[in-house]
Amino acid sequence: MILHVDMDAFYASIEERDDPSLVGHPVIVGGVPDQRGVVAAANYEARRYGVHSAMASATAYRLCPHAIVLPPRLDYYAEVSCRIRAIFERFTPLVEPLSLDEAFLDVSGSIQLFGTPETIGKRIKEEIRDELRLVASVGIAPNKFLAKIASDLQKPDGFVVVAPDAVQSFLDPLPVGRLWGVGRATNASLQRLGIETIGQLRALSSSILEQISGQLGMRFWQLAHGVDNRKVVPDREAKTISHETTFASDISDVNALRVWLWELTEQVARRLRRHELKGRTVHLKIRSHEFRTLTRARTLARPTDVTQEVWQAVAELLDELRASERFPVRLLGVGVSNLQKDAKAQLGLFDSEEHLKQRQLDKVADSIRDRYGANSIKRGTRLRRDGTPDHTKQPANPGFPQDPDSARHFFPSGRRP
Predict the structure, then answer these.
(1) CB under 8 Å to 57, separation ≥6 — which residues?
(2) Which one of 107, 272, 331, 348 has the minimum C-beta count within 10 Å?
(3) CB–CB of 274/363 below 8 Å?
(4) How is 7-71 classified by DSSP, letter by letter?
(5) DSSP 3-state helix, strand, coil percentages of the chain (rounded to 5)?
(6) Residues carrying an active site annotation
(7) Which of 164-168, 292-296, 297-301, 390-394 has the lowest mean pLDDT?
(8) Per DSSP, what are the bridge partners of residue 6?
C-alpha cells in the first residue's frame, strides 16, 4: 500500500502557525501587489476569492485587495520540509519526495511493526500536527496514481483510503479530468463524445482511446482501470534527483518561469549535497496547457552539486526551448541524472576560481543553515532586467519593501515583519 502525504497550503500554513494573528484572514505568500511577480501560495481564505498559486500578483491583489501579502521564506520552508520527512522515515525508508510539501511512502514492509496502512497514515498526520502544528492530507491506495487522487479529494485535513477491491467504485464517478494527461483540449474532445466520468471512459476499448488521444490513449485506459506499476523510489536508489511543480493556472511569462525554476534548482541541488551525490546531466521538463510534455537535457563537462552550475544549465535549456516553443506552461520540472557518490568525483587541477567560490558558498550556506536554522542565511533571488536571477548581495529580509510607505502597501493590515 502506498501513502501520498500532501501538506495543506504549506507555505501559508507555516506563516499562520508562526503568527496566529493571520488566522482567519486571507494570506498570500509571494509577489508584491504593485510589481511583477507570482503567487507562491495562498491560504484557503484567499482561495475563496479565486486566488491560487502561480497567479500574477497584480491579479491576486485585484481579486483580494485586503489580503495580507508576505514574502516567501523558501529556506525556512525547506527546513520544515526536512522535519516532515524525518517523521515519514520513522515509519518507512521508502520515501519519494515530489516537492517540499508532498511525498509518496511505501509502507508495505512496515505493517508488522506499526499496524495497518490506515494506522500508519493517522499516526503520520497526528505527529505532524503535534510536533509541527501543521495539517497534512493523506491518501492511501494500492498505487501512486490512486494515492495521489485520494489525498486531494477531501482537502484540507483529508484522509481517504482506497481498498484494493474498491478501486473501480472509487474511480468511476470521478470526472475524467482527474486522469493524468487529460488537459483542457482532451477533456473537451471527450465531452463532445459524451464522456465525462472515468467510468464512462473505462467502458471504451483501448483502440478507440488511441484513436481519440493518440499515444496517450493506452495510458488513459490503464489509469481508468486503476493500473499504475511505478514504484516508490527513495533518493538513495534514484537514477535522477528531481523536483517539479504543477500550476493551478498556466503561466506564459518567462520571467515568472525563471523564478519558479530557480526555486526548483535550489531544491534539487540541496538534495544532491544532502545525499553526497553529484550529477552530470541536467534536465528541464515543461508540460504545456494541452499536456504536451517537452524535455531538454544538457550533459556537463563533469558531475556537480553546485547550485549555480545546475542553474546555468537550466537557464540555457529554458532559453533554447522558449526560442522555438512558446505556449502556456502547466508544469515545470528540474532534474539531475548520471549520479555518482561525491567521493568519486575528483576535483580538477584546473578548477576555475568561480567554481571553487560557488562550491564553497554552497558548503558554508548549508553548514550555517544546519547549525542555526534555514533562515540564518539567504541567497537573494531578485530578477535582473533581462529576467535572470540576480544573486548579488541583498538587504536584510530580501523581498520586503525598504520604504515605510511601500511596506504599509505590502502589508495592508499594517503588519510588519
Answers:
(1) 28, 30, 31, 32, 33, 35, 36, 37, 38, 39, 69
(2) 348
(3) no
(4) ETTHHHHHHHHH-GGGTTS-EEES--TTSS-B-SEE-HHHHTTT--TT-BHHHHHHH-TT-EEE-
(5) 45, 20, 35
(6) 102
(7) 390-394
(8) 102, 137
> At 76, phi and psi to the nearest 5?
-65, -45
Instruction: Name the percent of the chain lying above pLDDT 70.
Output: 80
Cell of 304: 556537480
Q: Are 176 and 197 in contact (CB under 8 A)?
A: yes
Cis bond upstream, residue 398 (ω within 30):
no
- Compute the distance between CA of residue 98 and CA of residue 6 in angstroms, rounded to an integer: 10
pLDDT digits (tens, 9 = 90+) for 15-55: 999 999 999 999 999 866 555 677 888 999 999 999 988 78
pTM (global) more than 0.85 = no
Q: How far apart are the first and last CA of the chain?
A: 44
With cut-offs at 50, 70 and 90, classify the pLDDT of residue 416.
Answer: very low
Phi and psi (nearest 5°) for 143?
-150, 175
List residues bridging with 339 in a β-sheet.
279
The phi, psi pair for 246, rounded to 5°, reads -105, 130
Total residues belonging to the chain:
417
pLDDT of residue 368: 63
